[in-house]
Amino acid sequence: MAKEVQMSIKMEPELRDQFMAAAAGRHRPAAQIIRDLMRLYIADSETPNALTADTIRKSDQGEDVFYASSATDMFKQLGI
User: Fold this and answer.
1) Which residues contact 23 (CB under 8 A, 6 or more apart)?
2) Distance between CA atoms of 28 and 12, rounded to whole angstroms?
3) Which tens digit of pLDDT belongs to each residue from 51-73?
4) Best exposed site among 5, 25, 40, 53 by fewest CB in 10 Å?
5) In the prediction, which pLDDT does 29 show?
């Protein structure tokens, strides 16, 4: 098992109290919720994600590329 380290953070007392109450209401340790949130944040921060990578690949290959003569034309093509 990986070595665990402690971390401290500063926050408003009201935020801490609300978080601790929400964690208790779900019968989950606050530290576990923080670890889960950190993992989600890291996963969400990975670039590019699958959709972005696919969009870049399609653009590089000329797929799903549209050209507009003006902003008005672009909005019209997008149906906005």
Assistant:
1) 29, 30, 33
2) 21
3) 888 988 999 999 988 889 999 99
4) 5
5) 96
Return the closest-CA partner of residue 16 out of 34, 36, 41: 34
75/71 Cα distance (integer angstroms): 6
Q: Where are the domains of the chain?
A: 13-78
pTM (2 d.p.)? 0.56
Write out the DSSP string of 10-73: ---HHHHHHHHHHHHHTT--HHHHHHHHHHHHHHHH-SS-HHHHHHHHHHHTTTT----SSHHH
- Orientation of helix 13-25 relative to helix 30-45, angle to 10°: 100
For the chain, report the end-to-end CA distance as a whole number of angstroms: 53
Helices and strands, number each (H, E), in the chain = 4, 0
